[in-house]
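Sample entry (271 residues):
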Amino acid sequence: MYDKLFPPKKIVLPSGKIVLQKRSRTPLVFLILAVCMVLSADFTGFSFKVLFTRIHQFFTIVLAMIPPDWSSLSDIWTPLLDTIKMSLLGSIIGAVIALPVAVAASSNIIQSKVIIFISKVVLSLLRTLPTLVSALIATFVFGLGTMAGTVAIMLFTISYVGKLLYEQIENVDMGPFEAMESLGMTRLQAFRFAVMPQVLPGYISTSLYCFEGNVRYAAILGFVGAGGIGLILNEGIGWRDYPAVGMIILVLIVTVTLIESISEHFRKKLI
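Predicted structure, serialized as tokens:
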């Protein structure tokens, strides 16, 4: 249809032969995107005018956090450690559980289509469920506190690491696996010695990257009562105590930066 509306351009080669060059689809793609943006803005009530006239309020709040309240630093350490412990424990448990789930979802390792289907559906459901919703459900099951936050982070880690890991497993070179099976090894033994060495660096790297993100996610789980630094962050915002909020954000930035630097160092060693 597009070629009929915009006929290909004729190009005459030095030999006299005529070739046809199809018109670029780029203008059509930009037009479709522009129409989608306009319709989306109209449907959601988004207004660029309001955005540009009210954006200065954001900087007003940011300026209110400067300088941060250094006297509140002593009240931050314990919730911050709770946040880091939640993230670390949830990430480790989630990454460990994600390994067998990812294997069960790998079509080149597991022969049962039922097991593969169930494993992929479980991972999809966990990815669909937002971390805040998982934490909210966990608070009803385990009560308020870091236990609920750890469970929410664990579920997210399973979904994230499991998804990426089973894709890595399905893309490995199956030659060594088949060779070890032909020598009499079981599928589990062949997976351990032929597939696991190929995916192990990516698996550990993905788990470390997930841990970095979990520290940030854990910081807001306190909004639903899941413990950690989010509790005092929510309290500070509720009381409009912006200098204290600025101190919390500053501590989080430094903490996340340090964790990312350490994690990046180990990922470079692995890849």
